[in-house]
Write a structure and sequence with these properties.
Two copies of one chain form a homodimer. In chain A, about 25% of the residues lie in helices and about 20% in strands. Chain A is of the alpha/beta class. Chains A, B: It comes from Solimonas fluminis.
C-alpha cells in the first residue's frame, strides 16, 4: 500500500489526515527574521507554537544580510536625533509610499510608519544593541560597528521632492559586514528561551485544509517520514521568496535572472506555493531587488554610468540598487562607470563585486575606442554631461549638485560592470497578497481562514525593485512577522 | 434561507451542487476566437458542447482586432509563395521562439510552426476568404481587402539574425480595418450551424470541482439566477485576459497601465481567476502587448524616436508594438518621432492615434528649445545618428540600412507621441500555464483534470511584450483553442 504523496501545490484535506502526530495552536514555517518574530509574538500571546525549519539551524536568508533595518518616524530614533535629524512620520510614510511603486500598499505603509520607532525599540528589547553613531558618507553597509547610514534614495530625485530626506538604515553593533547573523542570533536566543517547539530539518510539504478552505495544519516531512501537525489557530508562512527556484524565476521574473548572484538559502518558493494551493493570491511576482555594490567610496557617485550604447540611464546619486535596477532594464549586458583622475578610486567592494578597470585613456575618445563603442557614443554622452555639470546642473537625470562636476581631468577610466563579469545580487519581492495583520488574501481580497504570511513569502512594503532601500526587507519581515504571529495567536 | 454565494476565486464542490440543471460533455467559456474554435472542434469530435458567453453576442475581443493571423512555415502559404517568399518551418519556429522571450514555450512553438499552414487552411474551410495579395510596404493593417503584410519585426535586428525574414500577417478579404469582426462572423456561422448549445448573457461564476480537484462543471448565472452545468469531459476557459480589471492590472502589470487605451470587451480576468481557484498556475502576469500606431507611411521609419531625455532607445524599423514596448520601459512620459522635411508625412493613423506636431524648426536646436529639452540633449542625439547614418550605419541600435539617412533637410519636425496625449493601446499576455493540448497546469506543471484554457486566458505563444507581432494572438487563440476543444472532447 503506497502512502499518498503530499504536495506544496495541493492541500491535504482534513478527511485525508491519517492521524494527528502533533498538536499546536500556531505553526510557523521558516526560521528567518519573519518566522522568529511571528513565533515570539505568538508564544507571548499565550499560544502553543511550533516553528518549522527546513535547514539545521536558524537564520534563513535574513542571516545573510547586513542586518540593517529601515526605521524612523515619530521624530526619529536616538541615532537619527543625535545626528541632527528629526524624522517626521509623514516623511517616512511618503518615502515608503513612493518606494512601494505603482501599487504601494498604503495600509501597510501607514501601520509601519506609525509604529516603526516602537518596533525598533522592541528589537532592542530582544537583545539587539545599536551604537549611537552615524556615518554621513554614502556606503552600502558599515565595515565598522556603526549604526546609522543613508541606505536608500532619500536625497535623490525624485524621492527628495516628496519627502524630507533622513538616513534610516540602522545596523546593529557588530564589527564588520554581516550583521544579519548577529541579528538572527539574538532572535534565536529569545526563541530558545521560550516555549516555542522548534523543529529543524523538517519541511512543510503541504497545507492541511478543511473543505471550507480553512487551514488546519501542515504535513511535515523529516528523514523521509511524513507527520501531521494540527495548528488549531493558524499557520504562518515565513519561508522566504523564490530566487533559488529556477522554474518559478523563468515563469515570473526572467528579467531578474540576468543578475548572476541570487541571495538566498532555501527560497525555493515553497511558502508562496503553499499559500497558492489554498487560493492565496500571489502578486508582483516579476519584481525583485537587484544590486551591484559599486560605491563606496562615495566620490564614485560623481562618475556617470553608461549602458552598452554609451547612454546614461539614471541619476547616479540614487541608492545602488536603484541604479542596478535601471541598468537591468537597459538592452545589452555591458555597463561602465566613467571616472576621471580626480575622482578615481578602487570601489571598496571591487574584488567582491568583481568590478575591474575596463579601459583607460588620456582622452574620452581613447576610452571609447578601447571599449569598442561606436564613434561618438561615449564622447557625446560625456560632453553633454560635462556641459551641464560645469553649471552645477543635471537637467537630464537630476543628480544633485553636490555630486556634479565635469569629468575633465585625465587620465580617464571606465570601470567594467558587465552583467556577465561583475557580481549582480538579487532576490524576489513578489509574494502572497496579505493584510497588514498577515492574513493571506485570495484574488477577491478575502482572507483565507487560518493562513498568514510574512517576509518575502508575502508581498510586503518592498514590492517594487526601483524603490528598494537597504533595510526594508528586514524591517518588513520582522514588523509584519510580529503582526502575523500576534494575530494568529489571538484570533 | 440564503443561497450560497458562488465565486470565481473559490470552486463550488460537487457535494454542494443542489441540482444539475444542465448536462453536457464539454463546456466552453467565452465566444471569442479561442472559444469558437474550441467549441467547433469539440462538437465535431462527437461531444455535446455548451458555449457560455457573458455578453449578448459572439466575438469577444477577437472581433475588435484587425483579423490578422500570424501564419507560415511548411514552405509558405499561397500568399507568401505568390509574393516570392518560401517560408521554412524552421524560420517560423526560430522567429516564434525569439518572440516568446526568455521563457518561450518551445513545445507550443514547435506544434504551431509545424501545423500553422494546415491551420490556415482549416480557417478557410470555416468560410474565411483571403485574397492572394501582398502589401510590401510596412503598415499596421490594410485599409483595403488585401491579405499579406509584414506584421512583426522579422526584418529588424535582432530577429533578422536568427530567422530568415518572411511576411506572415494574413488578413481576411474584408474592405478596410476591422477584419476581426468578419473573422468572428464566419466562425459564429459555423457555430450556429452546429449542435453547440450557445448561452448568451450568461456568466460562469464558479468552477465545480470534485474533492480530488477534477473539474466537473460550472455554476452559471443569468438574470440573477444560478444554474448548475455538469460538463462530464471538461471545461475550456477562453474568457480573455484581464486588461479591463483595474485591480488585477495594479497587482500584476502596473507598468502596462501607462497605456491609456485597453483593448478588451469583458477581459476582467475571470477566466484566469477561475483557473487559479482550482490550483491553475498563472505565469508572466506582468507582460502585455502595447502599441502606438505611428506608421504608416513607412517613410516615418526613417525618423528616430527619442524619450524625455532626448535619447534614442530602439531600432525604429522594429514592429510598432516593439517600439512602443521599449518606450514604455523608459522613464518619463514624453516621446517624439523626429523627422526632417524629406521624410515628413502625416501618420495615417494620426487622428485616431492622436499623434500631432509637437515642434518644428529650421534647425534641430530650434526644435530642441521648442520641446523644452535641455540644451544639447536632442541635438547630440541627432548629430550622432546622422554621423553614422551618412555611412549607412546604425551601430547603436542596428536599424537596417534601407531606413537610414541623415536627418539634415530642414525644416525639422517632432511628432508628439506623449503617453498622456497619444493613444497607446494594450492588452495582457499573462495567463494560465497550459500544455499545448490546452490542459491547465498547476505550479508543479501537473495537469488539472477536466480543465483546459486557450486564448488570452492562457499564457500562449505570445507571452513577452517585446516580441509581440500582429496576428500572434488570433493565431494562438484559434490554433490552441482547437487543440483544447479536441482534447477535452476525446479524453
Amino acid at each position: 500500500m503506497s502512502e499518498p504523496v503530499y504536495s506544496r501545490t495541493r492541500p491535504c484535506r482534513v478527511a485525508e489526515v491519517p492521524r494527528w502526530d502533533l498538536e499546536t495552536d500556531v505553526a510557523v514555517v521558516g526560521f528567518g527574521a519573519a518566522g522568529a518574530c511571528a513565533a515570539l509574538e505568538a508564544v507571548r500571546s499565550g499560544a502553543r507554537v511550533a516553528l518549522i525549519e527546513a535547514t539545521s539551524g536558524s537564520g534563513g536568508t535574513s542571516a545573510l544580510s547586513g542586518g540593517e533595518m529601515y526605521v524612523g518616524g515619530s521624530g526619529g530614533t536616538p541615532q537619527q536625533r543625535a545626528a541632527g535629524f528629526q524624522d517626521h512620520t509623514e516623511d517616512l510614510y511618503r518615502y515608503l509610499l513612493m518606494a512601494g511603486g505603482p501599487d504601494a500598499d498604503a495600509a501597510k505603509v501607514r501601520l509601519y510608519a506609525d509604529n516603526s520607532l516602537s518596533h525598533f525599540e522592541w528589537m532592542q528589547a530582544q537583545g539587539l544593541v545599536y551604537k549611537n553613531s552615524f556615518i554621513p558618507q554614502r556606503i552600502v553597509e558599515p565595515f565598522t560597528d556603526d549604526c546609522l547610514i543613508w541606505s536608500g534614495s532619500e536625497e535623490a530625485w525624485p524621492f527628495v521632492e516628496q519627502a524630507k530626506p533622513c538616513p534610516r538604515g540602522h545596523t546593529p553593533q557588530w564589527m564588520g559586514l554581516g550583521g544579519g547573523r548577529y541579528l538572527m542570533d539574538r532572535l534565536a536566543e529569545r526563541v530558545a528561551e521560550s516555549a516555542i517547539d522548534v523543529r529543524y530539518d523538517t519541511r512543510a510539504v503541504a497545507l492541511i485544509a478543511e473543505e471550507s478552505g480553512r487551514v488546519q495544519g501542515l504535513v511535515l516531512r523529516r528523514d523521509g517520514q511524513d507527520s501531521f501537525l494540527r495548528a488549531s489557530r493558524g499557520v504562518v508562512l515565513c519561508a522566504g521568496g523564490f530566487v533559488m527556484n529556477q522554474e518559478l524565476m523563468r515563469q515570473h521574473a526572467p528579467q531578474l535572472m540576468r543578475a548572476n548572484m541570487p541571495i538566498g538559502t532555501v527560497d525555493d518558493g515553497s511558502g508562496i506555493l503553499l499559500g497558492q494551493s489554498v487560493g492565496g493570491h500571489a502578486i508582483h511576482m516579476d519584481q525583485g531587488f537587484v544590486t551591484l555594490p559599486w560605491y563606496p567610496p562615495e566620490q564614485l557617485i560623481k562618475g556617470i554610468f553608461i549602458n552598452a550604447r554609451g547612454q546614461r540611464f539614471i541619476n547616479e546619486d540614487c541608492y545602488h540598487g536603484r541604479v542596478a535596477q535601471h541598468a537591468l532594464q537597459q538592452a545589452g549586458d555591458r555597463f561602465w562607470l566613467l571616472l576621471d583622475h580626480e575622482i578615481f578610486a578602487e570601489p571598496e567592494f571591487g574584488q567582491f563585486a568583481k568590478i575591474t578597470i575596463g579601459a583607460t585613456g588620456d582622452s574620452w575618445q581613447e576610452v571609447e575606442r578601447e571599449l569598442d563603442l561606436p564613434e561618438g557614443a561615449l564622447v557625446s554622452t560625456v560632453e553633454l554631461y560635462n556641459r551641464h555639470a560645469a553649471r552645477g546642473q543635471d537637467p537630464l537625470f537630476r543628480k544633485a549638485a553636490k555630486w556634479l562636476r565635469p569629468l575633465t581631468q585625465g587620465p580617464f577610466v571606465a570601470l567594467d560592470c558587465r552583467i556577465d563579469h561583475a557580481a549582480w545580487f538579487s532576490f524576489t519581492l513578489g509574494g502572497l497578497d496579505t493584510l497588514p495583520t498577515g492574513e493571506v488574501l485570495d484574488a477577491s481580497r478575502r482572507p483565507i481562514a487560518g493562513l498568514y504570511a510574512a517576509g518575502r513569502t508575502a508581498c510586503g512594503l518592498p514590492r517594487w525593485g526601483a524603490g528598494y532601500s537597504s533595510g526594508m526587507s528586514l524591517a518588513d519581515a520582522s514588523f509584519f512577522g510580529r503582526e502575523a504571529g500576534r494575530r494568529a495567536a489571538t484570533v
